[in-house]
Amino acid sequence: MYAVVVFGLPCTGATEACLQVCPAACTCSSMEHGCSVHCDRAGLLRVPTEFPCEAVSIDLDRNGLRILGERAFGTLPSLRRLSLRHNNLSFITPGAFKGLPRLAELRLAHNGELRYLHARTFAALGHLRRLDLAACRLFSVPERLLAELPALRELMAFDNLFRRVPGALRGLANLTHAHFERSRIEAVASSSLRGLRHLRSLSLQANRVRAVHAGAFSDCGALEHLLLNDNLLAALPAAAFLGLRRLRTLNLGGNELGRVARAWFSDLAELELLYLDRNSITFVEEGAFQNLSGLLALHLNGNRLTVLSWTAFQQGFFLGRLFLFRNPWRCDCHLEWLRDWMKGSGRVADVACASPGSVAGLDLSQVVFEHSSDGLCMDPEELNLTTSSPGPSPEPMATTVSRFSSLLSKLLAPRAPVEEVANTTWELVNGSLYDSLPSLGVEVLGCKAMFLFVSCLLLTLAQSVVFSLQRD
Fold first, then answer.
1. Which of 103, 55, 109 is nearest to 86 (CA)?
2. In this structure, are residues 169 and 177 in contact, taking their beta carbons and an 8 Å threshold?
3. CB neighbours of residue 202 within 10 Å
4. What residues contact 346, with CB distance under 8 A and at least 6 apart?
5. Phi and psi for 352 in degrees, rounded to 5?
6. Whether the Cβ atoms of residue 145 and residue 168 lie closer than 8 Å to each other
7. What DSSP string runs through 147-208?
8. Per residue of the chain (472 residues), what is the pLDDT tens digit?
9. In a 3-state reduction of DSSP, which class is residue 400?
10. Rounded to the nearest 5°, which phi and psi values hold at 377?
11. Longest Cα separation, the chain
12. 3-state DSSP helix/strand/coil percent for the chain, to nearest 5?
């Protein structure tokens, strides 16, 4: 009985004790139900030896703590929140958190030298509900580490070095939120999430996931938000999301998917947000979205779609917003239904046409589809061919004029003087023949004058013929 009285003495007079026992480098303030201790940015290299017994919250962020020994914080029966973020922790002794029986939130994020946790690190933390292990550069989590935490609801473990979903998750029946984004996880195996029957939110975005095994989420019937965006998924099994009847958000954006299968979404009747943006999708299977009657937004932007058939929504009644920008759309009659829906619903915009050439650069809403006498839609390309019949090409006429002018130019080019002709042509002729060149020169000049006269006539005649053909 005496021991019990001694143990209880320090916990009397909450306001006075909070101020009197406050560590020298910290500031303490009274709260409605206890004491709040702030030791952040205090330059501490070790944990203070004493805290107010009434402490409900302790903040030791951004110090130089390296090691947590056994019972590092003594006995603090009222402590609910402990934050040790942005320190230099490299080792946590098993049992370091003993004496904190009511601890509900533990933050160890941004301790990049931690890298390893002993299986008994969190022993005796039976009331812990939120655990933050983000950016600790952990390679793995011991299988039994989280088994000591039956009340755990939220696990923050992003920015680590995991190559697979930690097996320590299995069997955490009360876990509702798990965050593993920006790690190195390569696959979601069929047993990775076994027993997580109350899981409502799972983030695996920005990893290296190449494969999601069939049945991987079969135990996650309560899942509402699943983020698999910015991974390396090129394909998914038909039953990838089978059983996720409560799912409201599915993000598959930023992967390498080339097609959308109908079977993927067959069970997702409650889905509200579907992200398929920033993939390489060229084809959407018939009826792919027909069960998504409650969808508020469908993101298909940033893909390689040239056509989207109305049969993708067949039997469905899609009232949400449709995002289709940054696709190489071919705005022919296959998209007439979409053009009409754009004008009628106002829930889709920015569908820029990449082809046919006659409408390239226009928005689909601006494209006019003509119809034949029997009511059939006519593609823009076909309209251009029937309405603009090209006349005879002027190219042959131009070619004829050009060649004739070139010939005349050569014929009318200045001739070499008679003396040069004599020197070059008759160079080997004997002297007697050379003596007769003066008379020969007169005759040559006369021929040249006659040639020029005839050439001028021919040129005039040719121009008249060309001009007459052009007028016709």
1. 109
2. no
3. 25
4. none
5. -80, 130
6. yes
7. GG-TT--EEE--SS--SS--GGGTT-TT--EEE-TTS---EE-TTTTTT-TT--EEE-TTS-
8. 333 333 333 444 556 668 778 999 999 999 888 999 999 999 999 999 999 999 999 999 999 999 999 999 999 999 999 999 999 999 999 999 999 999 999 999 999 999 999 999 998 899 999 999 999 999 999 999 999 899 999 999 999 999 999 999 999 999 999 999 999 999 999 999 999 999 999 999 999 999 999 999 999 999 999 999 999 999 999 999 999 999 999 999 999 999 999 999 999 999 999 999 999 999 999 999 998 988 999 999 999 999 999 999 876 666 789 999 999 999 999 999 999 988 888 889 899 999 999 999 999 999 999 999 998 999 987 554 444 444 444 444 434 444 444 444 444 444 444 344 334 333 333 343 334 434 434 444 454 456 555 555 666 666 665 455 545 5
9. helix
10. -65, 140
11. 158
12. 25, 15, 60
Tokens of 444: 């040559």
- Domains of the chain are 14-161 (3.80.10.10)
